[in-house]
Design a protein that fits this description.
With 129 residues, the chain is mainly α. The chain is built from 5 helices and no strands. It is a multi-pass membrane protein.
Amino acid sequence: MNGFLYVALGGALGASLRHGAGLAAVRFGLSGWPWATFFVNLLGSLLMGLLIGWLAFKGESLGGGQGARLFLATGLLGGFTTFSAFSLEIAQYIQKDDWARAIAYAGLSVVAGLALVLIGMMIMRKVLA
């Protein structure tokens, strides 16, 4: 299968899951903070760390080799997480002159996202080593 097709299929699934997270946030009445974007970006960071940790220790034994990596990392997790929505939400806080919330959201997202990638990689290192 063509690599573009793996990415497209994973991306469609990931974007659909992200849309579902947005609908769930609305359904549960979560407001005052971009909870859906925050959640998918942090969960996506943890999942990316787990995936990369797996690939680092098991190589392409994931099943499907390069195709699985393209589907899962580039497609699914790339479609699930969203930098553009994250950037827009920060810009909206800035336009509302809510600098504290903009800085808190940006800082927490970046620091927690990085921490979760590292935690995911560490988990795989412990599990698979």
